Amino acid sequence: MIDISPRASLERLLRLWWVLALATLLGGLAGWLFSRFQPPVYEATALYRVELNTAAVIQRLSLDPEIGLSLQVQNNYYGAVKGLVTSTAVLSDLETAAREQGLPVDTIDYDISLLQSTHRFMFVVRSPDPELAAQVANLWMQIGDARLQESRAYAVQALVLELQRDSVYACFQDLDFTSANACAGTAFTVPTALDFYMDELNAQIETQRLASANIDAAFDLGVVELAELPASPVLYSVSTLIFAGMVFGFLMGITGVEVLPAWVKHGCDGKGD
CA–CA separation, 54 vs 18, rounded Å? Predict the structure, then answer.
């Protein structure tokens, strides 16, 4: 059995301090060498406003205002926004635009997250080049904003058409054919003409809905803050790697000073028996 007392351990560490110092220096050197092969990674973040007018959604869906929209339902709305700006089509447009501007995109990572409390989306780009990270983050937000605004416009048009359809339907449901035409501002001569008109409206509504990519008209969208040039890396900074290496080396030095002599003594005792 290996018996290591605290006092003996402290005396051994003090006596062999040079082993700890050497191990710490070697660990720091290993961290520095690692930093030569692994460049630091910088992170740039652009902020984008994504606010859902829940009151408008509740009114449109005829929900109880006191109950409101559940968090799960709200997440579905916000999920559509995230799905669009991280879609293959948007990222493909981003890479194309970046290459047209001479920006290499092979060494960058994309990420996006939602700050639910402040209704902000963060367009996050990581790259060994801090300037590249900021440029691509802003370009991504610009392209994403254009797609979102376009999709929201389709959603608004779908709502306009729905109101038009419902207005016409209400007139012809409650009034005779002549009076209904006057109510709806139409001039249908036969019911089949009305049916054809309603079918056309429904087809247009469906087209607009599909084009909206599930982005709701109740969203308030816009750029909040452009990404700035990151001042310091978030991963693999030289100082951090050296410090981590020194800590690791120090711990390995303690392990060596404490455990190895005890193992050697234990092995010698075993041979003696």
Answer: 67
In the numeric block, which tokens belong to residue 132? 């590249």
The Cα–Cα gap between 244 and 235 comes to 12
Sign of torsion over alpha carbons 70, 71, 72, 76: positive
Cα separation, 191 vs 172, in Å, equals 10
Contact 75, 272 (CB under 8 A): no
* Cα 202 to Cα 210: distance, rounded to the nearest angstrom: 12
CA 243/CA 231 separation, integer angstroms: 20
Give Cα 71 distance to the centre of its chain: 18
Tokens representing 204 are: 């247009």
Backbone φ and ψ for 70, nearest 5 degrees, come out as -70, 160
**Residue 115 contacts residue 128 (beta carbons within 8 Å):** no
User: Residues near 209 by Cβ (< 8 Å), separated by ≥ 6?
Assistant: 154, 155, 158
85, two tokens: 């700006």
Mean pLDDT of the chain: 83
Q: Say whether pLDDT at 55 is over 80.
A: yes
The tens digit of pLDDT for each residue in 119-137 reads 889 999 988 889 999 999 9
Provide the β-strand partners of residue 165.
none
Q: What is the pLDDT of residues 80-100, one digit of tens each?
A: 999 999 999 999 999 999 989
The tokens for 207 are 């087209």
Please report which helix (H) or strand (E) contains residue 175, including its range: none
Contact residues for 116 (Cβ-Cβ < 8 A; gap 6+): 78
- Helices within the chain (DSSP H only): 6-15, 17-37, 54-60, 71-85, 88-100, 130-174, 177-184, 191-211, 238-272
Using a 10 angstrom Cβ sphere, with 0-12 exposed, 13-18 middle and 19 or more buried, the burial of residue 199 is exposed
